[in-house]
Specification:
Four copies of one chain form a homotetramer.
Chain A (H helix, E strand, L loop, with lengths): L2 E6 L4 H11 L4 E7 L8 H4 L11 E2 L11 E4 L5 H8 L5 E4 L9 H8 L6 H6 L1 E2 L6 H6 L2 E3 L3 H16 L8 E6 L14 H4 L4 E2 L8 H13 L6 E6 L6 E8 L2 H11 L6 E3 L17 E7 L5 E8 L3 H15 L16
Parallel strand pairs in A: 1-2, 1-4, 2-3, 4-5, 5-7, 6-7, 8-10, 12-13
Antiparallel strand pairs in A: 8-11, 9-10, 11-14, 13-14
Helix pairs in contact in A: 1-11, 7-9, 7-10
């Protein structure tokens, strides 16, 4: 049975990525697309690469008849998202890709996003959408909050290790490198090709990146105590990709064993043989995450490296994976697209 | 019914692209992979991005039992390819991706490739694999010769125009820009990232590129007279993509009408509205070709621009499209993957 | 003797490139910098790569005391430029990098730029700044109009050939590929890294690019009759560089001989041996232009390829070259910086 | 007075970079160039971007008459370099860019480079070429060993901090990102554009990169005890640039004060205001190193970020800086070239 899907905020990169995935999904079809500023346009005008698809035109959200919609993906900016979702039918299944429902506590949201949450009941209702760790809750959920793309990458590297107690919780340093599509389609000087190409830099240095809110929430919850990692993201002259290089203190063999065990049955999380490190080029355009563990020359220290595509496994792929669960579809449906290399 | 596929020469980029496409093809499975120098290795060692697939290890060709194989893709270098195919079972369906069987005449092969053809009977047997124009022959063929990637792009832009007689056959200039994956995985200084990145140049200037052999053969055949185009390829700092900018003399409206009419029912050939020009970024990773027609300010002159992905529509996607026909499968099966953008 | 230089509109890429060149120029120093929106900022805030230089802060133009200024570079947008220059002291030497004074005729300006010229007296006064062809006029000029970067490239390839009468004036096709810095630092969606990287396309197709105004003016003037070339620019995923591939009809040997002769004593125009084609990567960051001539397989046809750096020889380097002449300095002073490769 | 310079091993990227710098150096001229495999060729055949220079042809080393040479740069592979330098006149000033003379102890060389040193007397004679820290020794030296490019970057970030005792010596983690030109012009599959572009990865993970030999030697020497840092380099899809993100434990204000004080009079080492982080794009093509210090959200932790161009400040620029000192020339001569941006 084909489910009817609405994508709210379809004119951004995560919206386009959702359409790309659904284009060959066996059980979903795009039934409605919204885009405030581009309402009235055909999707092929906004994204010419989708020209071959028979898609509905972009409309304003209020023009959508949700009665025939089985699930809505909400790919709007944060703050906007909570206002929009609050107005949607309360029985509509929603996967939100914004930051609005990732943090459980209203105080945490205000701390990291700088203003009070305006839909705290929805915040309480939402399930955190890191599929591999919230599978059962997601299956039963009406509203799922997609994770931050950096947050997903770091958690794939660290959650089983914190859970198993094989690393020192006070000495976790995550140095992360992300491609520019993670910053979206916004018109900012520092996203111009001439500014970014052939150059790279750290940003949000010093522990101020908002995805730290997710790390703090999740890692502390698992550990049963406060855990604060150090985290520095870097912008890299590539379109897609996140590479997290995580420095931990613990036994490398135990770390590798723990990750391998935890992900043995996971279709999308691939642990490399001990000593190998992954590359972003090997996951591009796919829903896979590659993880590697290497022992440092200094005893008791190890490096965990995780690579994924920020737009797929880090965002829209994860969203479809969650939607599959929410709709009672096989979890991997539509998501086994192989990475595009070279 | 699932067909068993062998890929000979699977350690190059077109081999990897075949595996990528077959990974989500509903009716094909990879049953054998060969790679002379990499025989004995697992495919994931050669192409870590295929790590999630359950693939046979690379073997030498002579180790493959072809009795259970329904079709073989041959992604070997030219000259090697004719020698290998000559030794394969004579009833095995073969799609060759090399240049060995593209030219009908032994003399033409020797002229463009610098040595005599050693399997002229196969050369005579082979069908030229430009799917949209040789569909019926391909359906009936045992041996299909995949076209050059540049040759495919240029022919999509020009064949209907030559056929319809709407352009001056003596004034065709094709300026083509291709990404670096078209040059393969060979270890050459001019393919190094440090050499290519942030720079671009013309190569094989002056009418010496081998794909001219295909243009001459095909265009002359259609026109019923000798047609020689001017053709200059350029190497561009991008991995995938071919953009052919073709300067022709003729009525732009007639040209657009002719192309639109010819491709009205083609699933992969998309003609843009009059006056629009395509971009390689909108076809990357897909089997689509976008075509545009623009009138020049000088009456009687027009520019036709065609864009496709050299590894997909220009090579491995075309190969699968041909194989679908040869195996009695729906032509588009496995090939409706949407382009990856950004 | 050190000359005091003002740069008006110093917050764009051509402004930064002027500062880069002047930084090691033996006879110039930056005495004033203007930037309307960034007035009050230090140059290192706008361009951190210039942090090591002792530069004046950005101010508004009206705050500059021009009495001590020997020459002003005007790197403002077109239309703005004519208004600003009209208000400058009438004895101040000015090199304008905008499009405002490139076209001799008011009607031509209005045709290509869509509105009437508001300083037609200055338009008449201005000398066209293609140094190698207007050297004596520039030496005597007060106001010099820097050429379009594409216009410079194409003229280096073609002027001597038109002058010498060795090519067919009605069959000139110029296919040009330019890097993204040529589009400036404007916030446009199509200049984002995620949009441009790994993709390329033709733009202003059909003879509507404004630099055609310069080609028409200059080529017709040389030929003594109307000459209209075909011209298609392409945007390439590289920051710097212009590569013009020019298709002409004429004897290749005569063409090569003509170019070699014309540029034999030119320090910046380097003609390659017959049959070789240049690459943008070999001129990056420099004031050199490399030119090549290749005979086509079809008799009587040749390809001329010219490569330069749009920000240097195509814009700010040319501007300094002109300023050197206007100030009685050796023409090459400060401009012999070698290209940056890789 | 102009000094005559020989460059041995001029056909690699560091050789080309030396020529680029010397091209506008007021007191040096290239008098001899060697290249074993390319002997007999003109430099413009090997590096077309140097076409405008009047350079000697490449010869074999034994063909060079060193009697008129004031200083030789040796840009050969390690192991080759020690054999070649051992045969050079013993009074010839030499700046070696290989790894052969960086480590003081024969045992350390063997440990990191896998075979015994064959010129241990030269090894003892050589001065470590980190200019800012060995200025007086270099001025007096005959043989100077250029540092590793990563090693230089990391030491600029850390030496004053170790010296001043403001950071915990056992908790230093350096995550480094380098452009591909650092890997040289070798024909390796992983250096192909198609492999690297749009992808990035960690390599030599776990403390096995050879530049660790330099860190261990230098940091331990400064500290007066054994210091072992953690160090993970990453290959980034850019040609030039090194960005070292260094995680340290100590007071951020003290760290910033220490670096600022140490480099207050250094022409090439630029410390940014507290809280700012540098970018590789702002040092490209120059001899500058930009350094930033940011306080982490966790008290007592800071991030130091250093950016430089691996081919200039990390290699050939450093070499010229050292040669200036050895030849009694002003240290900054020829090296004040501004970075090339964009």
């Amino acid at each position: 049975m084909i489910r009817n899907i609405a994508i709210l905020g379809a004119s951004g990169y995560t919206g386009a990525e959702l359409v790309r995935i659904i284009a060959t999904h066996p059980y979903m079809r795009v039934a409605a697309l919204s885009g405030e500023r581009k309402a009235g346009q055909a999707m092929r005008e906004v994204f010419p690469h989708l020209r071959h698809l028979d898609l509905p035109d972009l409309v304003k959200i209020e023009e959508i008849d949700f009665s025939g919609i089985d699930l809505a993906f909400c790919a709007l900016p944060h703050a906007t998202s909570q206002a929009v979702i609050a107005e949607l039918p309360r029985d509509l299944k929603v996967v939100d890709l914004s930051a609005d429902f990732r943090l459980r506590e209203a105080a945490d949201y205000e701390k990291w996003y700088g203003k009070p949450h305006t839909a705290t009941d929805l915040q309480r209702e939402a399930v955190y959408g890191l599929t591999e760790f919230y599978r059962e809750e997601i299956r039963a959920a009406r509203l799922v909050a997609g994770t931050g793309c950096n947050a997903a990458t770091g958690q794939f590297a660290l959650r089983p290790l914190i859970e198993a107690g094989v690393i020192d919780l006070d000495q976790i340093i995550m140095d992360l490198k992300c491609g520019v599509s993670g910053a979206g389609r916004a018109l900012k000087e520092n996203l111009l090709h001439a500014e970014l190409s052939e150059g790279y830099h750290a940003y949000a240095v010093g522990g101020i990146h908002r995805h730290l809110g997710e790390f703090d929430q999740e890692f502390s919850k698992i550990a049963g105590r406060k855990v604060e990692v150090q985290f520095t993201p870097h912008l890299i002259p590539a379109n897609r990709g996140i590479l997290a290089t995580v420095y931990v203190q613990g036994d490398a063999a135990a770390i590798h064993r723990t990750l391998s065990g935890a992900y043995a049955d996971e279709p999308f999380l691939q642990v490399l043989p001990m000593g190998e490190a992954p590359s972003t080029r090997h996951v591009r355009g796919s829903n896979f995450c590659h993880l590697g563990v290497v022992q440092d020359r200094r005893d008791g220290r190890a490096i965990v490296v995780a690579a994924l595509d920020n737009l797929t496994k880090g965002s829209s792929g994860q969203a479809v994976q969650n939607a599959n669960l929410m709709l009672g579809i096989e979890e991997t449906a539509g998501l086994m697209l192989a990475p595009v290399f070279p």
